[in-house]
Amino acid sequence: MLVSENQKTIIFIVVAFVFSFLMRLIWVYQFNGVSEFQFNNQFMINTNDGYYWAEGARDVVNGIGQNTDRSPTSSSLSNLTAYLFKLLPFSFETIIFYMPAFFSSLLVIPIVLIGRSIGKIEVGFIAALLASISWSYYNRTMVGYYDTDFLNIVFPTILLWSIIGAIQTKEDKYLLFTAFDVLFYRWWYPQSYALEFAFFALILIYLLYSIYKNKNKSKKLYENIEVFYTIQLISMMLIAMIQLDIELRVMLIFGYFMLFRQTRWHKHLYIMLVMILILFVSTGGINPIISKLNSYVFKDVLQTTGSDIQLHYFSVMQTIKEASLIDLETLGNRISGNSIIFIFSIIGYFWMCYFRPVMLLGLPMLGLGLLSVSGGLRFTIYAIPILSFAIAYLVVDLSSKMKEKKIQIFFLVIVTSILLSPNIKHIIEYRVPSVFTNNEVKVLDRINKVASRDDYVVSWWDYGYPIRYYSDVKTLSDGGKHSGRVNFPISFSMLSEQKISAKMLRLEVEYTEDKYSLNKESIPKYKSNMENIMYDYGYSNSNLFLNSLKEEIPLPSKTRDIYLYLPVKMIDILPTIALFSNIDLMNGKSLKNNFFYQSEDFKNAGSKVLLGNNIFIDKVKGLINIQGSEVNIKNFVITNYNKEKKLEKHIQVLNNNADLNIIYMKDYDRFLVIDNDMYNSMYVQLCILENYNADIYEAIILTPQAKVFRLKI
What we know:
The chain is built from 31 helices and 17 strands. It is an alpha+beta fold and about 725 residues long. α1 packs parallel to α7 (about 120-135), α4 packs across α5 and α19 crosses α21 (about 385-400). The chain is globular and about 95 Å long. The mean pLDDT is about 90.
């Protein structure tokens, strides 16, 4: 039975979609029944940022939200989720958990269609299989990875398909497809502007080439169908990219489209293009072209405030993994599964473009993906559809050289399986846990029962979104608000003594709220809270102000409660947290680094406890040997939880004049070696030792997973 091209297209899309979706269910199979990753018998998501969109969707569903709580109630993902929740008979948690697996698998549709457009539908099918489960794409679209990423590649791949269709066929429908894809892509992901503009620039180059090619022909350029159509395509893209409300852009798109269906308007094509360009520029169209990329590509270690009080802060971009540099091997793994396949994919792209020049239109996505070498691993996903096409084209082309059809099919099956195998292996081994465990979420759920929506829960920015989702409170920092000036007071509070810490927290919260106040008599002089605090307290030198916190100073009136959320696992990032306050704000120079060393891979060897890295505890001498140097120990502390889950601590003072302390956290099988400043810090005293000043802090929740305290001042 002969299968039509349409039937074959549908079959390939359905098979590729089912394959992609089922591969993402491997994680569910692996962790089915693991209660640690479930809350209220529902799987929890595995990305911090997901809780941001979930908060917005929750508030949309409940019809609540205010400007000062940073809930993204107007975001596309939150509103789509809320709509699906109202439409589908599933729980909210089920929807946000499985949405990434479903929507990311839609990528196979434009990929198969592109294959059909270039006359190689088998290439599209193989490419769809490869792209849908490629290492980097899977990591950012697996079940539970509830984020905008699950459509961030689908939209530009649809855009590529519509532009290829436009260039090849000159059919009017592709003008609308292109315009509306740009429209919805921007609605979904406002940072898409740079990639949209790259596509626009490539089509502009094609237009200039077309004009040059047809310049010597007798007819007017606007009467040349290639030039005329390409100008329309560019005009439609520009209209869709204009910085106006989406409703206005929809009206302009349809208006332009209907206008140029009338031949009497054709001679005014250039005038209309100029008018659109003027509107594009005048509405700020040029400004945001590379603004988002700049934050990842051009990273400064220090950030200055730019005001008359020149404060210097540590840049958060240096600590974010997704914005860090990656090597070529990692690049190859994340895009193609391994370096060898990646190299053949690059070769395949040149080969494909030689025979199908229209695939040069994929350069914006390929270029952005390869930019990840300097811009960070998050961009690798953009190159995946293009290089999946490239290797698939190469394989199909090689198979076509074989004489017998059966041998061709056998070759394609074997080679495709080989290409898929490293990515399938990665999926099986990539057992990412949920952001929080069941017991950790129980703590946040208990906060929700004691705190109001106007109260603040302070923690490091990594935990900001989950705190707001589960506890329904405000936070000082989160995944979208963690610049150096935001992180400094939190870092300073975590690593200062308890009294100083509490003062800084009260100042930071009240000054943050003051910015939101609708009734304030005067606008704060500076953007930074620290600068406003210094100004109000009469200091121009940050060091003098910070020293003043050791004394009694008048604090702002308490307008709300402040809670501290201190998870034990924050120990792992404590050195990173310290970077943000271990700095002289006046000149940006680092201060004395705290000594911090932890060991979970230690051995008890008779008279010694080997901590690794040539560091060991000499039990006989009561010293610690650090790479050949013997150092005195001030406090040797052992902590453990009894049957009632109450913390017990045994403190042995060995040398009051020493500067290093050892804490053996027995239940966690972990040793900490820290200096006195770190030992006396608010975080260590409250979270690890539960040694808190009852005049300043009230213990609300004390569990082995996390501690919650309320400020009394």
